[in-house]
Amino acid sequence: MRSPALRHVLTHLITPLLMCTGMGLAYMGAFVTPEPHHLPVAVVGTTPKAKVFAQTVKDTAGDRLDVRTVATRADAVGLLESREVTGAYVPGAAAPELLVASAASDMGATAVEKVFTPVAAEEGVPLKVTDVAAPVADDPTGQGLFFLLIAVSIGSYASVAALGAAGAGLAMRVRALLAVGVSAVVSGIGAVLAGPVFHLAHHDLAGVWGMAWLYSAGILLIGVGLHTFLKRWTTLTMMVLFVMLNFTSSGGLFRPELQNGFFGALHAFWNGAGFVEGVRSLLYFGDDGLARNVWTLAVWLLAGIMTTAAAALCERTRLPASEPAPPAAECAARPAATEQAAAEEELEETVGV
């Protein structure tokens, strides 16, 4: 290609086109065709009749359901509150009952209702649905936490582009401190949105802020560290890690049992899932499972600290021994403050935001 300017433009078009492809594959792959995969449910009863009923449901559903029996209704409620099952069916000749916890997943509650409504209809009786853990009235579907995740994520990964471009003249320790400060601001905005503005959190707002800070700081430190190595490809990498793979595996819309195995597996350890499930534990389930989700976010924060430390070491070791260390030394050998470099940084920040 003879025109350097045209080649430069076409090169930078690679990033948005890859974003388009990746977002389409991720979102459509995760959300378009939700189907139960080993959805855990319980049948209340220990009599032979109850066990035969449970086995019949399992045989009919196949791999879509994992069915267990429990002795009492109270046991079933306990499993729902610990999110070990998505629904529990209480047989009854006059009024069978389905127990759900829609605060854990509105879509999951809907899925099990679709499974057991025909079962009750075959017995010629209406099905009573009882929600043992409903979300607050200000968030009737329980999906507000997913949109809170999106807000905090965008504030975090977009700030990485600003710190990488505008902060290129600063030492790594300064950029890292800025990342920690920005994460406090981003998480504070998230807490205000969750509390006074939209009333998603009617209690434990300080805990929501703390989890948002852990989540945001991990993203920012990972991004600031990666920028040293990836330069203008940092934005695309951040989109892959914290949008394409993150939002889709968070469980904010669909629990992993309603997704394919790939996104369901990511839910076990990805940071977005740690944030969403942790806040759910805090607000609706009496802190059950909270410690595990906090540890998930802490591990991601540790990964950010290690990435930033590696970037700082790389910037120092790549300097000529005879030269004093400028604050913005970069690992890749690119000219300092050239017009093309400035344009690339400006483009990165624009695309990132």
Can you describe what's shown?
By secondary structure, the protein is an alpha/beta fold. It has 13 helices and 5 strands. Strands 2-1-3-4-5 form a 5-stranded mixed β-sheet, sandwiched between helices. Helix 2 links the parallel strand 1 and strand 2. Helix 1 packs parallel to helix 8. The chain is elongated. The chain starts with a helix and ends with a helix. The C terminus is likely disordered.
Radius of gyration: 25 Å
Overall 3D form? elongated
Q: pLDDT under 50 segments (min length 5)?
A: 332-337, 349-353
Provide the spatial order of strands within the biggest beta sheet. 2-1-3-4-5
Distance between the termini: 30 Å
Order of helices and strands: HEHEHEEHEHHHHHHHHH
- Helix-strand makeup class: alpha/beta
Helix content: 55-70%
The total of beta strands comes to 5
Q: What percent strand?
A: 5-15%
What's the helix and strand layout?
Layout: H1 4-31, E1 39-44, H2 48-61, E2 65-70, H3 73-81, E3 87-90, E4 97-100, H4 106-122, E5 128-131, H5 144-165, H6 172-197, H7 205-230, H8 234-244, H9 246-249, H10 261-266, H11 271-284, H12 290-317, H13 339-352
Parallel strand pairs: 1-2, 1-3, 4-5
Antiparallel strand pairs: 3-4
